Amino acid sequence: MDSPSLTALFVTLVVLLGLSGFFSGSETAMMALNKYRMRHLADQGNRGARLAAALLERPDRLIGVILLGNNLVNIAAASVASVIAMRLMGQAGLFVSTVVLTVVVLIFSELAPKTLAANHPERLAFLASPILRPLLVVFYPVVVVINAVANTLLHTLRLTQAKSPHGLSEEELRTVILEESALLSSRRQRMLLNIFELSRVTVADVMVPRTDMANLNIEADWGDILAQFRASPHTRFPVYRKDPDHIVGVIHGKDLLKLDGLEEGPPGRETIQSLVREPYFVPETTPLQEQLIQFQRKRQHMGLVVDEYGDVVGLVTLEDILEEIVGEIQDEHDMPMRGIRPQKDGSLLVEGQIEIRDLNRQLGWDLETSGPRTLAGLIIEELETIPNEGTSLKVGGHPMEVVRVRNQTVTVVRVYPDDAERGWTD
Fold first, then answer.
1. Which residues, 6 or more positions from 69, have their beta carbon under 8 angstroms from its beta carbon?
2. pLDDT, tens digit, 9 for 90 and up, residues 295-329
């Protein structure tokens, strides 16, 4: 039988090196796949994605068939290279073929394919899957035996590892959102991150304090009630009797408008009282995530916030919670920035009682929210004393000046958004 020509041997060697590169690249591509995107593409009917998903259901068998094929072609390539070297240089050619083949395999069958696969895992994995699937079927008995031996050895050495969960933890998902900035707009990215924060923020952090609540006195004259309703941007009002601390229910603006349209004259107290709905109370420690679900279940839009003693300390609305996700929601009654008045010199006059969370949201700041809830409280904490009017300081890197102090409380603060112009220093 005639020996194969050198040309045939060189062609065979190139084919074997190409197969080696295929197996090496396939392993890297399959392991680097984004499994969530792969499942999404598989659900959309992508054949390569479906095959890849099926192969990755048993990664041990997939790796087994890839390594089996890679080792077979590498050994065959070494044998062919030895034959070529022997024909060209005799016994001395064995050493030369070993060195040359090592370099060639490292560059063209390992490093280059794996680098390419790492940069384009999806494209290469989906192309390789239709080839790997029948190879797994053909070599299935061998792969099963190899895996059994390997698993037995690992079990004997107590090197087996518990299966990792398929899902992502909250922190892992947060990292994915932050890293996929190229796929998500900054607004969508911020909204997704804000959703995670709902479980860490309580109702007390976003509620309207009791002192700022727009309440209606159920015992006031009809004209006064109607005038207060018309002057307010709100549609729902806590109702009290005699004492604002004694809230007896909630009344809806549309019900008041129905009474106003009657021609019989001003309604009586009993008629007005009949419009009052049962109050919905919310503990101040309730996480926003849970409260959002409760609003949905109970079909409520507003809740009265109570402390541990059952006293009303504020109110929270569905809009307050949604603003934590999507940002400030403004309607035709809202000022451009609530509690903030822009000045001609570029500074901002800010109410001292503005919530830190509102300030962060409206100005894009990142002040600490785990301490004082208001800007006035944050300034007093920073200075460790009640400041005088005209006191200048920096809070969170932002220069400020106390403009007005009333009743031992900071009521107005001037904020300079651009501290570079004013030469402020920490």
1. 19, 23, 135, 139
2. 999 999 899 999 998 889 999 999 889 888 887 66
